[in-house]
Amino acid sequence: MFSTSLAYWLLLAISSASITDGRHHHSSCHGKVKVRKEWGSLTKTEKLSYISAVKCMQTLPPETNTTVVPGARSRHDDFIALHINMTRSVHLDGIFLSWHRNYVHLWETALEEECGYPYGQPYWNWALWCDDLAHSPLFDGSETSLSGDGAHNPDQGNYTVGNGGSLPHANGGGCVTSGPFVNQTISFGPFDFALAFTGLPSNWTTYTPHCLVRDLNNYVATRYGNQTAIDVVMNTTNVEDFQNTMSGADINLGPHGGGHFSIGYSLLDFFASPADPAFFLHHGMIDRLWMMWQVVDEKRVWELSGTSTIFNGNDTPEVTLETMQTWGVLGKDRKTKELLRVGHEGFCYEYM
Ligand SMILES: [Cu+2]
């Protein structure tokens, strides 16, 4: 315990220093800045408020056109459906970071405006809990967690990853058995990763209710989410390397892929992963690291690499500052250059 909390405070000290640097850039937020904190450092009130706001999003009616997407049953489903539909445009490419920055921000904004959650979007610092996910504040299954492990599923084989690689499963693999999201119904999917190559079938919009599935996997979390793995990403010096080390390649999942795999099944669904409430905390951490990496050098802020097609495919041109990005019913279209600076263009938050 001692070493965990020591590491925790060291990390807080490091992150505070970086944020101070970030403030040297003039902000256009005029003092209205939300503080995004690590889940473990939220007060009980803040945690319960966040959980009840997520449940509120799962109860409010959708804004998606349900003639087109009949599976959409809630505001949370609006976020999931949009992500499913855009998966092959916004991952493993040149708009991954900026698109998800605004996606998480739109979620944070909806939590406040529609569900009364007044605080910043929390994040999940992988390194703090990677060797014991089931006892982390985020996944311990208590009333102040986002639910715990899934029931044991004896039929799990290994994960096949990349070019013939293999990763072990853990002890879960079934529906979550404890905590606030034990009765959550996921409306879409699950979707096979192979669809990343072929595209979605037209019936992806169908209502296919199932439970929130988890398989908390310390082996994967430790391998790809420890501080050394994060340092590899943070020590890169151009955005192409930052993107590639964050999301990994082949069996090296990187912290981005590693986070998805370490929680397993629902969060691992390449298309419908925002159905797991932990998604927004995972991507909060990615956004935090990107911001900390950007403020080291002003020219990193404006650096772009890749297209807006999965695997940087050439169906779309190289991303530029003028490239338009879209979020459907969730929010207005934005130019990429508006999405690159925390503290500007409505991104009024900071990381603690
Ligand atoms: Cu995503």
TrEMBL record:
It comes from the Eukaryota. Residues 91-108, 276-287 form the Tyrosinase copper-binding domain. GO terms for molecular function: metal ion binding; oxidoreductase activity. Residues 1-22 form the signal peptide. The keyword Metal-binding applies. Pfam families: Tyrosinase. InterPro entries: Di-copper_centre_dom_sf, Tyrosinase/Hemocyanin, Tyrosinase_Cu-bd. Keywords: Metal-binding, Oxidoreductase, Signal. PANTHER family: N-ACETYL-6-HYDROXYTRYPTOPHAN OXIDASE IVOB-RELATED, TYROSINASE FAMILY MEMBER. This is Di-copper centre-containing protein.
